[in-house]
Sequence to fold (164 residues):
Amino acid sequence: MKKLTTLLLMTLLVAGLHAQTKTDLPNVTLKDLNGKDVNISKLSNNGKPIVITFWATWCAPCIKEHNALSDVYDDWQDETGVKIYSVSIDDSRSTAKVKPFVEGKGWDFNVLLDVNSELKRAMNVSNPPHTFLIDGKGKIVYQHTGYLEGAEEELYEEIQKLVK
Fold:
């Protein structure tokens, strides 16, 4: 009986540790700007990093961050192969503004619509901007919230660590 209890406790401990360190992307499906379904858990970039950044049209720091990322995105892609997914958390009343807003800004990111905040909740995002870096195996390896000028440089340093 003691061995069974010990085995059960060990199993629960290992399961608990796995749950605490589990960083897989959630199984949530969003729409892109063209209405195509994109399952977040199936995002891949041929083993290269992925950035997922949450934003909204009403969020001034988000727009500053996206403008900064847009300025360096082509270079980053050439140097590291990184792909950026920009997740709008605008609700159903303002989601129609997202596509013209993005096109007006000239952002070349893959933009996804989280109208019901399902991915936002699944990834424990409270306020935008909130940015995640995903390694080539689909694990979250870095994240930050808010935006200060130059924060994209820190993100790029983390991206470079993954591709070395």
